[in-house]
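REQUEST FORM: STRUCTURE PREDICTION
Request ID: SP-0412
Submitted by: Lab K.M.
Chain count: 1
Length (residues): 276
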Amino acid sequence: MSSNRKLSGGRGINTDLEDPFQQSGRIGSEKIVQNGLRFGLSFEEYSKFPGLNQTSLKQYLHHQDRSSSFKINQRALIRGNAGHCLILETDRFHQTYVPAPQGLRFRGDLGKKRWKAFEDQHPGKTVLPRNLWDQLMTSERVIAVHPKVSSWMEEGYGEASVFWQDPDFQLSCKARLDWYNPSRNVVLDFKFSNNSNESYCRKQMKQNHYDLQGAWYCRGIAQVQGSFPDYVLIFVESVKPHRIQDFFFSGEEIMDGESKIQKALKIMNKKNNAED
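STATUS: Completed
RESULT:
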């Protein structure tokens, strides 16, 4: 038995899949997760599985590079989280977020008081500024009609979880993919931004070690699928003119990411040995 959930633009996702980890225990068990892909796993459930991930590796690199500013932009974080949820988990988006009424802003004592009153009317939901809500809705429509992106998303699964025992590192590892298309063996990684100019995007790719991220995702899929996938980084402008810039990573770029993985692991091991 299977069911299809439709996203905007007619993309279908089969979410009624057999649990590949039935033989290794459910969430919360002490059994080690076997190599494999898992679809339909919430982020909270994914987080309960042990394993090294790319976020931890990037943090080791940022901490070593004192000149690197690893600061969290809260507005960008909210925009990115909401954008990912809208594109990849449309049903959950409308259960999680609500738009602020037109004209309501979190400014001044009166504005903040009215904002708080509106939040109280929608318990359990995150209120998004109206302009951000409208921007995201437009971004969703643009993605749905973009020739390459919509083609890659004709098949596949959003928020795919990957778990593997890495033979090179002798570690339990995991990854959370924005979108994975098994039939074309391609991983899509979405980044929401106010700017999709190539020079800006490449600066972001360098500063945020997206080559490491891509290499990590490719390593995980290669372990469970037997072949390296293509990795595509997609920058989506959340403001007009809502352009989309896609970067199809070359083998050389993935190898650069692999080198960063090795570097981060050395830093991690050195830190762990110092603490012993």
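NOTES: The mean pLDDT is 84.
Reviewed by: T.R.
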